[in-house]
């Protein structure tokens, strides 16, 4: 009886293929590029305005003084999206009122921030829901202060 039977040759060939597959050279693994780090900073309404998603700019919006990077939701908050009015702006009043109208935005960017004191309990609850949603989904990249505030960035 010979070792070189057809079944043994097939098994030896299969074993050789399996060993080759296990130890063959593999292509180096490349990791995806991480996004650049975002540094927490202080914004004023005028320094926040350019972060509206136009071009390659990220999309930021402020809610109750906290600035969120909503760039991952650019199709909603960026140009052409349903919430595009809020990009680069303080969206607190509009979110509280569930209104996307331009009238909900502070027109005087050099003036004081909207204190939201005239909001009803339902509107404040609505705003809190939005703020919680943003906190769960997006990074806080800064805070919003009024022009002339001691913490305001120097131009």
How is the secondary structure organized here?
Layout: H1 6-23, E1 41-43, H2 45-48, E2 60-63, E3 66-69, H3 74-77, H4 92-97, H5 121-137, E4 139-144
Q: Can you characterise this structure?
A:
The protein has helices at residues 6-23, 45-48, 74-77, 92-97, 121-137; strands at 41-43, 60-63, 66-69, 139-144. By secondary structure, the chain is α+β, with helices and mostly antiparallel strands. It has a domain at 41-144: Cytochrome b5-like heme/steroid binding domain (Flavocytochrome B2, Chain A, domain 1). It is elongated. The chain starts with 5 loop residues before the first helix and ends in an 11-residue tail after the last strand.
Précis, in short:
This protein is an alpha+beta fold and 155 residues long. 32% of the residues lie in helices and 11% in strands. Strand 2 (60-63) and strand 3 (66-69) form a beta hairpin.
The largest pleated sheet is described as: 4 strands, mixed
Percent helix, as a range, is 25-40%
Instruction: State the strand order across the main sheet.
Output: 1-4-3-2
- Mean pLDDT over the full residue set: 90
Number of strands: 4
Approximate strand percentage = 5-15%
Categorize the overall geometry: elongated
What's the order of the H and E elements? HEHEEHHHE
CATH class descriptor name of the domain at 41-144: Alpha Beta
What ranges have pLDDT less than 50 throughout 5 or more consecutive residues? none
Q: Which CATH architecture of the domain at 41-144 is right?
A: Roll
Structural class: alpha+beta
Q: Rg, please?
A: 28 Å
User: With helices defined by DSSP (H or I, 4 residues minimum), what is the helix count?
Assistant: 5
CATH fold assignment of the domain at 41-144: Flavocytochrome B2, Chain A, domain 1
Beginning-to-end CA distance, first to last residue: 93 Å
The CATH superfamily of the domain at 41-144 turns out to be Cytochrome b5-like heme/steroid binding domain
Subcellular location: Endoplasmic reticulum
Transmembrane segments: 6-23
GO molecular function: heme binding; metal ion binding
Keywords: Endoplasmic reticulum, Heme, Iron, Membrane, Metal-binding, Transmembrane, Transmembrane helix
């Amino acid at each position: 009886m010979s070792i070189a039977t057809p079944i043994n040759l097939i098994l030896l060939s299969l074993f050789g293929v399996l060993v080759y597959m296990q130890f063959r050279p593999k292509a180096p693994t490349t990791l995806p590029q991480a996004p650049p780090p975002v540094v927490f900073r202080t914004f004023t309404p005028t320094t926040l305005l350019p972060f509206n998603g136009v071009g390659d700019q990220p999309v930021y919006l402020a809610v109750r003084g906290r600035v969120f990077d909503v760039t991952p939701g650019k199709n909603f908050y960026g140009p052409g999206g349903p919430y595009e009015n809020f990009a680069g702006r303080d969206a607190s009043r509009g979110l509280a009122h569930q209104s996307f109208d331009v009238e909900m935005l502070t027109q005087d960017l050099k003036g004081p921030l909207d204190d939201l004191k005239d909001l009803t309990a339902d509107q404040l609850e609505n705003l809190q829901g939005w703020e919680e949603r943003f906190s769960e989904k997006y990074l806080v990249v800064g805070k919003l202060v009024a022009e002339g505030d001691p913490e305001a960035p120097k131009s």
